[in-house]
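Question (not urgent): is this output format expected?
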Amino acid sequence: MGRKDLTEQRHKDILDAFERCLIKYGLEESTLERVAQEAGKSRNIIRHYIGNREDLIAAFVERILLRIKQVAADILADTPRQELVPNVLSFLFQERTANDPPDLGERMLGGMWRIREQSPLTQQALLNFYKEFEKILTDGLSRLYLNVPAEKCQEVAYSIICLAETNWVLGSVGVDNSHTHMVRRSAEYLLQSLDN
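Got this back:
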């Protein structure tokens, strides 16, 4: 009888450890040594099953994308039409308090923004993330607004993502929730333009 293939389990264990490190230390401080220690594995195991640090980041971005796709699929599948837009906007424009610790998305995306110029693979992973997220939102809007051309849905989707991203960046430096309310209203105006 052959040996059991451990690839999938090791891959999961390493990404779980990387995620814990991201929460504890942020992206810049989540070194291969720390991830290996957190996973209870050697650096060689990480290199064998995933690759170098850039490969680890890219694999983790793919994991985050799968989560976002699942959240989007759940929202689109399980939400009545009249609640769909408010649910999507609540997802994109979450209110935070000064006492809230940075969530995983903030730590991951913030770190990727800071190191993207040093790492072409990280820059590509970040670009892929936003393109995929734009596609998810565009597809959702196209299903919601059946009579609107796909190009118009894409324009609105991209604009809403830009609003959400800018709000996230400014929120991370201390802009208060009143600004989140303002930018969410702007996103609502963009969505209302699809009704015209």
